[in-house]
Amino acid sequence: MNKSQKFTNHNYNKSLNKFASQLRKKMTKSESCLWKYVLSAGQMKGYTFNRQRPVLNYIADFMCKELMIIIELDGITHHSENAIANDDKKDERLRQIGFSVLRFSDNDVLNHLNMVVETIDSCIELKLKERLKSTKK
To answer: Using an 8 Å Cβ cutoff, are 123 and 69 in contact?
Structure first.
């Protein structure tokens, strides 16, 4: 299978769809909180975010295709050196294909949700300014 067949629609990887579906059914407490109170139903300035979206060989916790934003939530399993290195590699690869990647700890989502919302809002505003700039050229 060549690359154009494997990755389509914002680098969607349909071979990971079954696993992504399982993850959507077993969201963590912080994922559920961010989804319910911040990202579902266009709550962030009307933009649609998808949960557990396969992209390249990864599954993004949340993705806004229109703005090319990925949000990752890191629990305790992300604290080891190996996990941090893997997350850095994932973030770099996603940035290479045009995504902005935001990472928050579970603790941030559960205890400092306003800060998380402000950071996401700032990223959206930046993306909108970039889009406006590029259309004026």
So the answer is: yes
